[in-house]
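Lecture notes, part 5. Sequence design as translation. It can be helpful to think of inverse folding as translation between two languages: the language of shapes and the language of residues. The source text, in structure tokens, appears below.
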């Protein structure tokens, strides 16, 4: 592993890698600073660009967009109480209050430095532990992998949706879509409905862009929002963050980093949950919790360090097991597959230096980020005032162009439109598309693992699983209990919603 790490550092030291990471960070901050333009949408639209680059350029570019977008969401959250991303919701608790006090520049600098510290620390931890995890993953056989994927899909279905049943429905829909095309074991065509174009399966790129980008555009058009805010912000002469103030928040940043790193490795949790948990932990640990929500710098530090420290650990299940834990890693998986790389246990054995190169690139991205972020704070503060009506047509053009350019197949545009309408309808009905995407991506792996397990069992599959594969038996044994617990959680959330509804009507 040490040799792979050293080779990875050498692979990273390229001017085009650094240049595209910087460009990705700038684009991410730009999109993140626009309320309503999510980082996921930006990554989906920009995904095709990475296909025409070297893996050591294209994937770091997308990682830069991701990292920049998470921080960029804090800018409108602080200035106008409009989080640019879901991860920045907790930042609205104290950010606008600091802006009213004339401390918006101070708040944005705290958000920047906390984000970089949390992200950088989690990336280092990821590099230290991903090697041993990968070695363990390489010993996992088809039965264990199938059981892990099944459990992951259940957890993702429950944690990414408001109601468990809705998450499961979307997951099953994704599994069905994954079965369209060729059988991974026998190579037989199925569920093609007479369409020759999908005999090899539904193309991933148009699906991702359709599900994540098109619904955002349609919702923006539906709401008829032409601009975000008419006010311009001058941050050049604002009050700056002092080292003493930052030093006071170091303990909070470390606590939130530990929380985000721990939660980030769990599929389906993500930045939003980490931000709220980090903020709550900081408030509970504070000697003056009454100051939180009224313009507390520690509150900004807690939320931003927690949501950014998720970035590194989310790659662990993706790189070691091939399991994307959230929407971002699902898009990154699409980039890997397009580059001819299949994340999983064998990726470390075959492309170890490349894997570590990408992880090292994340560290360098943070170092670039802190410089670019600090210099461009006044610039991106003005992004909040850009008219939304001017950006939506450009976003739509990029979405359609990106879907077509990859394969130059007009059928991909039909796929884009279909899943765009599907994603929009799902949003209107309060269905999260994330479980569906995970089901689609992991479906072939699950099916292949199941088929291999049956073959290995030689007619005694149950005996083989529960006697010959104890790890598989343990995972399958705890799955019903986890499912029941998540079902109970979903029912409790539904009951709370029903109880609140009459009050809201009154």
């Amino acid at each position: 592993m040490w040799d792979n790490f050293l080779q990875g550092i050498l692979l990273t030291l390229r001017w085009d890698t650094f240049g595209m990471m910087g460009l990705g960070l700038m684009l991410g901050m730009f999109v993140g600073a626009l309320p309503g333009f999510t980082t996921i949408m930006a990554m989906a639209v920009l995904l095709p660009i990475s296909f025409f680059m070297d893996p050591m350029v294209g994937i770091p570019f997308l990682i830069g967009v991701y990292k920049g977008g998470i921080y960029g969401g804090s800018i409108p959250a602080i200035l106008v109480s409009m989080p640019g991303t879901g991860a920045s919701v907790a930042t609205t608790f104290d950010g606008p209050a600091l802006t009213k006090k004339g401390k918006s520049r101070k708040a944005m600098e705290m958000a920047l430095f906390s984000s970089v510290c949390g992200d950088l620390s989690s990336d280092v931890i990821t590099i230290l532990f991903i090697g041993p995890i990968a070695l363990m993953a390489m010993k996992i056989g088809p039965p264990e992998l199938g059981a892990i994927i099944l459990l992951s899909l259940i957890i993702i279905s429950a944690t990414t949706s408001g109601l468990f049943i809705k998450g499961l429905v979307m997951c099953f829909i994704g599994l069905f879509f994954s079965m369209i095309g060729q059988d991974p074991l026998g190579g037989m065509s199925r569920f093609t409905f007479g369409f020759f174009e999908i005999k090899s399966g539904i193309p991933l790129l148009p699906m991702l862009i359709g599900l994540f980008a098109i619904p955002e555009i349609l919702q923006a058009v539906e709401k008829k929002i032409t601009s975000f805010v008419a006010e311009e912000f001058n941050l050049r002469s604002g009050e700056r963050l002092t080292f003493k103030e930052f030093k006071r928040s170091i303990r909070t940043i470390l606590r939130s980093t530990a929380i985000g790193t721990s939660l980030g490795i769990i599929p389906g949790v993500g930045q939003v949950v980490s931000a709220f948990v980090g903020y709550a932990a900081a408030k509970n640990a504070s000697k003056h919790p009454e100051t939180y929500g009224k313009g507390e710098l520690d509150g900004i530090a807690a939320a931003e360090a927690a949501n950014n420290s998720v970035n590194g650990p989310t790659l662990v299940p993706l790189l070691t097991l091939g399991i994307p834990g959230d929407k971002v890693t699902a898009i990154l998986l699409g980039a890997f597959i397009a580059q001819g790389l299949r994340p999983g246990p064998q990726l470390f054995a075959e492309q170890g230096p490349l894997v570590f190169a990408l992880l090292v690139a994340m560290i360098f991205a943070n170092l670039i980020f802190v410089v670019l972020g600090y210099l461009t704070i006044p610039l991106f503060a003005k992004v909040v005032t850009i008219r939304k009506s001017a950006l939506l047509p450009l976003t739509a053009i990029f979405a359609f162009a990106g879907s077509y350019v990859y394969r130059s197949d007009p059928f991909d545009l039909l796929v884009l439109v279909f899943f765009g309408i599907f994603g929009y309808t799902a949003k209107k009905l309060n269905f999260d598309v994330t479980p569906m995407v995970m089901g689609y991506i992991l479906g072939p792996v699950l099916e292949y693992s199941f088929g291999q397990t049956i073959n290995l069992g030689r007619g005694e599959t149950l005996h083989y699983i529960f006697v010959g594969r104890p790890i598989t038996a343990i995972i399958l044994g705890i799955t019903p209990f986890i499912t029941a617990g998540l079902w109970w959680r979903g029912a409790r959330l539904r009951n709370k919603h029903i109880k609140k509804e009459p009050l809201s009507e009154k």
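The translated text above is only one of many valid answers, since several sequences can fold into similar shapes. Residues 2-185+194-505 form one domain.
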